[in-house]
Amino acid sequence: MDSHLGLFLLSVVLVFASGFSRNLPILSFEDGYSHLFGDGNLMVLKDGKSAHLTLDERTGSGFVSQDIYRHGFFSASIKLPADYTAGVVVAFYMSNGDMYEDNHDEIDFEFLGNIRGKNWRVQTNVYGNGSTSTGREERYGLWFDPSEDYHDYSILWTEKHIVFYVDDIPIREVKRNEEMGGDFPSKPMSLYATIWDGSSWATNGGKYKVNYKYAPFVARFSDFILHGCAVDPAEPSSSECDVSPYFVSLVNEEITPEQMEKMGSLRKKYLQYSYCYDRFRYKIPLPECEIVSQEADHLLRFDPVTFGGDHHRRGKRHRRSKGISAV
User: What is the tens place of the pLDDT at every residue in 196-206?
Assistant: First the structure.
């Protein structure tokens, strides 16, 4: 191998291992995204590198990537609305629902608003081939107020795993295995950002609705990263992926031991819900679940009804008939 190429590849590996999102190219809005819905409720700032999404009584708003991707690293810095935000949902996610109506894939960040004095929650979800009836939701509190400043939220999607990051700290990893099969997202997807009215479910299962007295609700986005393998929409299943050193390092990226330790520590403190421990929905955890005793203990203390197992079932009916209600 040429010595210069070898040094370059080594530097790329070190870049990714030490927090790769800070070293990937940041796109302007016009170079990466297009208007999705919301008329004037989507505002692109004069610098061209930031955008605001607004929800008011008239409509929500959203934008979508110009390209569709098969794997990659996707990130944005987001500042969420402040004050009373019950029922408000801000989503940053990947999907191909416009191409595969009955068997689409998704990888989701959903930010769930709350009543005054209560914190935002962040929920993640993953499904493939339209497996929406098999919920793989996890929900977390945050160790900061996401309405006070911008924070980075990122998705790493490769053939072998999906990792959700907050400020370059992994909070969840979904590893692909044979038993998971087509439930692991595998078809090319677009990247979306939206704000919308989730009054029917987002806060305490719909108990608290959006109160438009506090509108407009504005979610601010900047530092757009779309570093993936773009494919031809006309032939999404037969494309050649980018083989640049950056992308090769990306798809081979592993969570470092230091990151793994941080992830474990945060999950023990801030995990509020995980389908892997929900004994109402799944008597036996799904095959990709890795049960961690510290997480199980934390969730049992957090919500003994949902996570307490069979001895808590007596006299109680299933609280969720379809999917999961955010509480």
Answer: 999 999 999 99
| Closest among 200, 227, 196, 202 to 92, alpha carbons compared | 196
Positions of E strands within 80-120 = 88-95, 106-112
Instruction: Round to whole Å and give the CA distance between 252 and 247.
Output: 9
Examine residue 2 and state whether it is found in any structural domain, yes or no. Answer: no
What is the C-alpha to C-alpha distance for residues 60 and 42, in angstroms, rounded to an integer? 9
For the chain, the straight-line distance linking the first and the last C-alpha, in angstroms and rounded, comes to 55
DSSP for 177-242, please give it: -TTTGGGS--S-BEEEEEEEE-TTTTTGGGTS---GGGPPEEEEEEEEEEEEEEE-TTSTTS-PPP
Give 165-177 pLDDT, tens digit per residue: 999 999 999 999 8
pTM for the full predicted model = 0.87
Q: With bands split at pLDDT 50, 70 and 90, how would you rate the model's confidence at 226?
A: very high
The answer to whether 123 and 327 have CB atoms below 8 angstroms apart is no
Kindly report, residue by residue over 259-297, the tens digit of the pLDDT: 999 999 999 999 999 999 998 899 899 988 999 999 999
Question: In this predicted structure, what is the pLDDT of residue 108?
Answer: 97
> What span, in angstroms and rounded, lies between the C-alpha atoms of 35 and 101?
21
Cα angle 131, 91, 250 (rounded to 5 degrees) comes to 75
Residue 327 predicted with pLDDT over 80 = no
Q: Are 169 and 259 in contact (CB under 8 A)?
A: yes
Same domain, 203 and 299: no
Nearest-angstrom CA–CA distance, 269 and 302: 10
Does 273 lie in the same domain as 305? yes
Q: How many domains does the chain contain in total?
A: 2
Residue 166 lies in a domain: yes
What pLDDT sits at residue 14?
Answer: 37
Domain membership flag for residue 321: no
Q: How far is 108 from 141, CA to CA, in rounded Å?
A: 16
- As annotated, the active-site residues are 106, 110
